[in-house]
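Repro case for the chain-ordering regression, as requested:
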Amino acid sequence: MIQNQVKLPLGVAFGVVMQGIRIRFGRSLVTIGGVVLGIAFLMSTLAGQVVKEGVQEEDRMRTETNRMASFLAAEMGPPLNRVVGVIQTGPLNEAEMRLIRYLIDGGLQKLQWHQASGETPVPTFSGLEPSLVTMDEVARDASGVLLVGSGGMPKQIAAPSALAELLDGAREKVLALTRERQDLEAPGVSVVRLARELSPDEIAQADEDRRNARFRTAWIVLISLVVTIGGIANAMLMSVTERFREIGTMKCLGALSSFIRWIFLLESGLMGAVGGMAGACFGALFSIVVYGFSYGFGSVLISVDLVRLSGYLLLSVAAGVVLSVTAAIYPASVAASMVPAHALTTNV
Amino acid sequence: MVIDQQKFEALFKAPEGEEARCVIRAMDVKKTYRIGQQETYALRGATLDIYRGEYLSIMGPSGSGKTTLFNMIGALQKPTSGKVYIDQVDIAQLDTDELAWLRCHKIGYVFQTFNLIRVMTCLENVTLPMAFAGLDSEAAREKAIHILKMVGLGHRLLHKPAELSGGQQQRVAIARALANSPEIILADEPTGNLDQKTGEEMIELLARLKKELHVTVIAATHDLKMLQTSDHILWIEDGRIVKAARPEEIDFTTSEFG
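-- result from build under test --
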């Protein structure tokens, strides 16, 4: 005739938790404050990385474009009122797009475009529409021909004689390469390599710098999260001690240990979610404002990678919940394993 | 849904012909606490039978083992040795889930310090044990309102415990104890924190419940008025039951009640 006590749906525990948080609002705020600080730190570090990388990438790109443009100008002169031919072998990268835009902004008269790869679409530019031409016509009256895109070298110009023939009608016999290409040579043609080759040493150095920076950041973030877990666990333990009598009473009324455990885990998880959201927003805002002051708000807002930033926002909120629930595991099991008789005789 | 009093009372009724059933039986119950190297006896062997519908008072000075005996027969703690049967079930054989069920359905607890959940209203305090029993919230609400009206708090349903007087809080606690129609009400010094007049009202309420609902009331007390209302009185001293009597056998003018 003795039965097992019914397992209550989580909704009941949720109701109890919401009531508790509302009534003990001040105390809940203090606990949430701990989560907010920890998560804000995490998020500001992550967002800082995104913003910094965005700004640096933008910076690097500008320098690269300027360098390529001045190399090109040295060979064929300033772009004003000139004709330039473009052979496209595949999708263009950001630097190539910027270089062409730079030429157009410089007053280019005509852009003779040959689409050599077939599948990739021809990009559009404001100010000057590329006029599509055949390979034979691409160099006619041009001050130079750009070979752009990620595809391989078109067969028609791979041979030196073919290249010389192609540039026959050009005003200046200049072929500019924006990417690493095989050696090209043709009599009377100057081949300009605009792409800058990084030496293996430089690449290794950059990689190591990046790795070190990441490791340092990860270490600081890890420490701060451990501190946050400690803080939350402490607050939850206090909360358990404070509620000894309440827990004991609930056990006398027939609450299962699992129900008590759920109450504390849910409470902590909820506070973690709220604190995580607030912390993530504060952290992101903090980073944007701080970097905005040093790099200028305009360039920060243009260059920031929003997809990555929102990914980190979600990650931070999740971290808030996970941290809080982890921190509450021990306090919750202290509460759940309490003998009801002890809870009633404790004077707190 | 409106609960009528007869139906409500029927929830408490034992099956026909079982009126004199033994609801709690304790056999040579001992409890020791270990503090460091030293063993302390809280209970040195208590044996007692409590029958359904009985009003039993337990007397004893503080430190006599009264509360320990209470915890044993209330299934709040397991004895070191000896057996406790509640409704013919040996509680030592029950796992925690079954103990929770037993505490939820068979026993209602009333404490000296009321122990209401202070973040909940009166109504929620009373419906909480019903929720633990799996009663749906609408039915629980109806039943809780009925019980609160019965203890005279129909007008205080949505108040928080802090907004009530001590006597009113203890009434809520008694209403909560009745929530799942238990056979036994265990009251540990229910009048201890109340003034004389409110205490008497509480005693009358418990006596009325015993009469109307046929619940078994077991109360630890110092209150003379309470002893006079009891069916039986037990004295416990130094972990042993030293005396048992009916109120009519006792001369209440002597000082043996401390």
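Ordering looks correct now. The CA atoms of residues 26 and 48 of chain B lie 5 Å apart.
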